[in-house]
Amino acid sequence: MNDGSAYTRNQSSLFLIEVIIAVFFFAITAVVCIRIFVKAHIVSENSQVLTQSYIEADNIAQVFINSGANIDLIISRYSEYAVTLSQEGDYTGTILILYDSDFKPIPHPTDNIDQTIESTAYELILTQSLEDALDVYEGLNSYEEAGYACKASIYIYDIQLSDTLITDTYFENLKEHAENRVLTLPIDLYLGDIDTGA
After folding, report:
1. Which residues contact 181 (CB under 8 A, 6 or more apart)?
2. Which of 36, 82, 128, 129 could join 78 via S-S bond, C-beta 3.0 to 4.6 A?
């Protein structure tokens, strides 16, 4: 009888060790799966932000092209949302549009600055300048043939991790400031021989 109980205890111990090993492998597999799901969620969120950034940048790029790069026409298209940060003439200046975390433009952003800063998650900045087309495009032979071109950049910044707007801190060097930048879209538009008002 003594031999039978020792055999049963050995089987029970062996079964317990097998269960512990199985639970250990299950725990390791669960940790790996959770890490994969968390990483996939982060990639998905980043992808959504990038996709929405491209949509918004493309929208304003189309307005830029359709308006003939006239900054007043661009502002009038976004009159409820746009803030003019600077403007020199019809083709040079900087426009700011603020978005909430769902990429909805914040209407009348200058009405209540504190609330605007609190609800802003993304900044879209369009900066443009009028330049000689010879400086923008290669292959043009003379100024008479060239005229002017409007060169612009659209920047989108994620400011959710910042306590201030990008334009408050880094307005003078937007090109160099890459922290929190989601997207940069350079565009240009050939204007030909136009009256610059100068």
Report:
1. 155, 156, 157, 158
2. 82
